[in-house]
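sry for the spam today, last one i promise. struct tokens for design, 158 residues
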């Protein structure tokens, strides 16, 4: 039997995070400086509780808000995606692949009991998948090696 790969096995735990009371332009500058498309938002006043995600897409709302509404607020909390999909550390790799394949999400915060414990990006999933596809030297590369990502039992055919 091959052990299933879970989010906890490859999630990134050292993350750039934002605060809801942070200046939105400071947050955008952090995204650009660090070459990331989004970051989790944590409420430091509430024991670093997960609030949501501030992303490039949220930044578009800032731009349109500034252009049309004269930016009613300049704090991150006003633009956070509070409904962003999250996963648990025990979400299996194939389920994460399916989420990324069927949605526009670029990252999935990993929560345990409401607390942020890590994040998985599309790139993390690709890296984890490739590192687990052991192709014997000299053999042809094949999509059959993708089966290494899924838990299975090797029982004789009856």
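last one done:
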């Amino acid at each position: 039997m091959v052990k299933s790969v879970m989010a906890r096995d490859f999630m990134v735990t050292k993350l750039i995070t934002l605060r809801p009371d942070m200046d939105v332009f400071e947050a955008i500058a952090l995204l650009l400086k660090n070459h990331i498309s989004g970051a989790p938002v944590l409420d430091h006043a509430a024991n670093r509780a997960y609030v949501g995600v501030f992303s490039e897409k949220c930044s578009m709302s800032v731009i349109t808000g500034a252009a049309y509404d004269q930016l009613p607020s300049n704090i991150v909390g006003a633009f956070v995606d509070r409904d962003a999909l999250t996963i648990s550390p025990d979400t299996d790799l194939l389920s994460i692949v399916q989420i990324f394949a069927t949605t526009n999400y670029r990252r999935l915060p990993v929560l345990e009991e409401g607390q942020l414990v890590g994040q998985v990006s599309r790139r993390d999933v690709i890296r984890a998948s490739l590192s687990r596809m052991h192709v014997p030297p000299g053999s042809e590369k094949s999509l059959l090696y993708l089966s290494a990502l899924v838990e299975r039992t090797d029982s004789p055919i009856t």
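Strands lie at 38-43, 49-55, 107-112, 115-121. ok im logging off now
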